[in-house]
Amino acid sequence: NGIALTLTAGHEQRVEVSAATEEFRRHIVAKVEDGTLLLAYDDLLERDDRKLARIDHKLAVAVTADFLTGLTAGSGAVITTEGNFAAPDCVLDFSSGATLTANDLAPNVLVVRETGGATLKLAGRAPRLDIRAGGGATFDGQRLLSARCQVEASGGSSVRVLVSQDLLAEASGGASIRYTGHPLLTKTETSGGSVSGKDK
Predict the structure, then answer these.
(1) 147-169 burial, b for 16+ CB within 10 Å, e for fewer?
(2) Which of 89, 157, 163, 200 has CB 3.0 to 4.6 Å from 183, enough for a Cys bridge?
(3) Which residues pair with 186 in a beta bridge?
């Protein structure tokens, strides 16, 4: 019952929520604290009712904003973005099967932290890219161009990046890092980790 979140770039700030029923919709929590929009689904009854928890709630939130500096997601959340989100810095922190698909990111510095089977598929540009992936996470950045990239991958995670200048790659615990481009490569492989690349 993860929330499906759609982020759209635009000057008009707006939040819209929907669900399979009005009862489910009322339990979607959307609030702003210290400039951060918090989204969650909270129904105490479902924690003890497995039959109710298995129902497809169709939880969905649509947010329009002109600035994106960070996203934190877990519990199977499904997030997609539409439009160009530019920011000096952006931090993505994903866990517990959460997914993100973004086609037009443009931060100067992008920091990614993911674990617990999280999946990110990103496109756009990020001159500086810092990735730390573990716990079976997947990062697909084959269409996200970075000039300088640092990657730490462990615990069976999979990372793919497109790098033009410098790549520092550390893979361990069966993790794999694959790169495209012509970067100056510094790599470390331990405990079954692998780093490999090909020219674009």
Answers:
(1) ebbbbbbbbbbbbbbbbbeebbb
(2) 163
(3) 168
69-200, what's its fold?
A: Pectate Lyase C-like (2.160.20)
pLDDT computed for residue 120 by the predictor: 99
Please state the pTM of the whole predicted model. Answer: 0.92
CA distances, 148 to each of 23, 42, 104, 162, 164 (Å): 48, 41, 19, 10, 7
Q: Which tokens go with 79?
A: 């997030």
**How many whole angstroms separate alpha carbon 28 and alpha carbon 94?**
20
Domain range summary for the chain, segments of one domain joined by +: 1-66, 69-200
Distance CA 41, CA 2 (A): 8
Min mean pLDDT across 34-48, 100-114, 168-182 is at 34-48
Q: What is the pLDDT of residues 26-57, one digit of tens each?
A: 989 999 899 899 999 887 666 666 556 556 88
Q: How far is CA 197 from CA 16, 88, 187, in A?
A: 43, 29, 11
Give the bridge partners for 170, in sequence order: 152, 188
Q: Which residue type is seen at 36?
A: T
User: Average of pLDDT values for 71-85?
Assistant: 92
Give 64-108 as a DSSP string. EES---EEEE-TT-EEEEES-EEEEEEEEEE-TT-EEEEEEEEEE
